[in-house]
Amino acid sequence: MKYLVVGLGNIGSEYANTRHNIGFKVLDALAEASNISFMTVRYGDMATLKHRGRTIYLLKPSTYMNLSGKAVRYWMEQERIPRENLLIISDDIALPFGTFRMRKNGSEGGHNGLKSITECLGDNQYARMRFGVGGDFPKGRQVDYVLGEFSDEENKAMPDRLKLFGDAILSFVSIGPDRTMNSYNGK
């Protein structure tokens, strides 16, 4: 069985440590823990992870956030990944820092990366894992906030949060979305 796990973010060193790039950070942490590395491929950087007889493609799109759907559609078609084996990881300003929330489908919640994926796939029937980044910003300053860096306190908590999200990805692949949601949502 094949899976495509996509971490959303923006390419470039100026975005590397921003809240909007948490999808990249989650995949980087899982790759490091699994002793695998990313290679540059069409529309992004990809690492291949083997877990319990399954092949997991970890993709960090190089298309920038607003065009993420192009990379997702391409790799789903290229590797013949069924929709139920797709998982998208994104930031969420509506959740407190580090909060885990997974859904099998649903709205984009104003997230431009998720909007692009929905447009390219034709619907919103794909699993998504959201990493809470908090929403402590003045009205009209959302872009500055998500493109800002994590606080020192958040960075101290980051390793534990990244491990939890990596474990949840492996859970999704091993036991499916329903049991993963029951085990991890709200943590």
Q: Can you offer a commentary on this structure?
A:
With 187 residues, the protein is an alpha/beta fold. The chain has one domain: Peptidyl-tRNA hydrolase (Rossmann fold). The protein has 6 helices and 7 strands, in the order βαβββαββαβααα. The chain has a 7-stranded mixed beta sheet with strand order 2-3-4-1-5-7-6, with helices on both faces. Helix 1 crosses helix 5 (152-175) and helix 5 packs antiparallel against helix 6. The two termini are 28 Å apart.
Secondary structure blueprint with pairings:
Elements: E1 2-7, H1 22-33, E2 39-41, E3 44-51, E4 54-61, H2 68-79, E5 86-92, E6 100-103, H3 112-121, E7 127-132, H4 142-146, H5 152-175, H6 177-184
Parallel strand pairs: 1-4, 1-5, 5-7
Antiparallel strand pairs: 2-3, 3-4, 6-7
Helix pairs in contact: 1-5, 2-3, 5-6
Jot down its keywords.
single chain; 187 residues; alpha/beta; Rossmann fold; 38% helix
